[in-house]
Amino acid sequence: MGAYDAELGAAVERAQQGDDEGFAIAYRLVQPGLIGYVRGLVGDDAEDVASDAWLEISRDLGRFRGDGAGFRGWTATIARHRALDHLRRQKRRPRTSVLEQDMLEMPGGHDTAAAALEKLSTEQALELIGSLPREQAEAVLLRVVVGLDGPASARVLGKRAGAVRTAAYRGLKGLAEHLTRAGAGGVTPGVRRTLKDET
Rounded to whole angstroms, how far apart are CA atoms 23 and 173? Predict the structure, then answer.
């Protein structure tokens, strides 16, 4: 994600200097992955939660320090906090089965399983991600949808980088094994399960 993050970093720097166009570019680059990630947590309320997150992002932008990759992680952390606040108010658990098409169209493929997910229909890919245990599903969402590495994902989730890398690895490995068994031709009926089911 080198050129993508370089463009994002430059846009954020301009936005921090009061350039509205810089902020618009940063928003355009980050919003597809961010809305996909939030939708994976809160479902149909994603637009409202993402709007709340962007209000906080714009308010606190002057305090952000880092590059484009750091900005993606910072915005994902804010969005996750807003999503979890929303779920607490509604007393619901995060879920991963109702994401948008654009979440699978983010720049960069990370490995064979992630690349295979992108070749499946959106519904099939989301059913597979939704079938994972909660920690693995969220780690995969942060890696594939938002494009964060292990340390950045760990900061978003408030966990050790090794634990998040392991969760993402296990999740992607499980997805790859399922795809191999299924011949990447489809999702086994009944595989759908949401994070809400993981208590």
Answer: 37
- Give which of 56, 74, 58, 61 is closest to 5, Cα–Cα: 74
- Residue-wise pLDDT for 85-144, tens only, equals 998 888 765 554 433 333 333 333 345 566 666 666 555 666 677 778 888 888 888 887
Yes or no: say if 120 and 128 are a contact pair by the CB < 8 Å rule.
yes
Q: What is the 3-state secondary structure (H, E, C) of the chain?
A: CHHHHHHHHHHHHHHHCCCHHHHHHHHHHHHHHHHHHHHHHHHHHHHHHHHHHHHHHHHHHHHCCCCHHHHHHHHHHHHHHHHHHHHHHHCCCCCCCCCCHHHHHCCCCCCHHHHHHHHCCHHHHHHHHHCCCHHHHHHHHHHHHHCCCHHHHHHHHCCCHHHHHHHHHHHHHHHHHHHHHHCCCCCCCCCCCCHHHCC
41, with CB counted inside 10 A (0-12, 13-18, 19+), is buried
Per-residue pLDDT of 35-88, as tens digits, reads 888 887 887 888 999 999 999 999 999 999 999 999 999 999 999 999 999 988
- Structure pTM? 0.69
